[in-house]
Write a structure and sequence with these properties.
alpha+beta
């Protein structure tokens, strides 16, 4: 996504790798004020704690959590906070499945349409997460859904809003980005591909 200046917006980027191949998840946070270095560090701390309590358990131990990069999206050349996660690898054991296999968490706002929905591809599936070549287990899907529901709640507890950032309107870049709060998560059992979410 191109940088479209967005008031009160922090981009939170989780940089991972598996077998030397980079994997990046990005989320956008409405922090309710102009982002400062202290706010960037606080958003990073929320992500860091969430990795340990929720996300790592659903990710193969062959996936490394390398960096949390929080960037001020309100200005050009915005400040960054770069941290190494406390939990450095996933915790799920078992044979890894194909590297591109991922479960998708659909991030929903109260509005409909592509401008108001986001997605996160959860990498690092293992054999115990799948029931056949096309589907994850109900349990894994539910656990991923709970993890992202908890991330929304953790941001709210910190005074922030996990949001969808809309950079386009009618196929043209917006002059100013639009943040819309995420209010629900939908995760089904269909296995998707994360190849477009890798950084190479």
């Amino acid at each position: 996504m191109p940088l479209v200046l967005t008031p009160q917006c922090v981009e939170a980027k989780l940089v991972m790798s598996q077998g030397g191949v980079p994997i990046i998840n990005r989320w956008y946070v409405d922090v309710g004020a102009s982002p400062t270095p202290a706010i960037l560090a606080l958003v990073s701390a929320v992500i860091d704690g969430w990795i340990t309590t929720d996300y790592a358990s659903q990710i193969s131990n062959t996936v490394a959590f390398e960096q949390i990069i929080c960037t001020d999206f309100a200005v050009n050349n915005g400040a960054q906070d770069i941290a190494v996660p406390t939990t450095t690898t996933g915790a799920a054991t078992g044979a890894p499945v194909a590297a591109n296999a991922a479960l998708v968490a659909s991030l929903r706002t109260q509005q409909t349409g592509r401008n108001f929905r986001g997605r996160t591809y959860t990498p690092g599936m293992v054999a115990g997460h799948v029931t056949d070549a096309q589907h994850a287990s109900v349990g894994h899907a539910a656990a991923v859904n709970t993890a992202f529901t908890n991330l929304v709640s953790l941001m709210v507890a910190a005074g922030y809003k996990l949001s969808v950032l809309s950079a386009y309107l009618n196929n043209a870049l917006r002059a100013v980005g639009l943040l819309t709060e995420i209010v629900s998560i939908i995760t089904n059992t269909k296995i998707d591909s994360q190849r477009r979410r890798t950084a190479n």
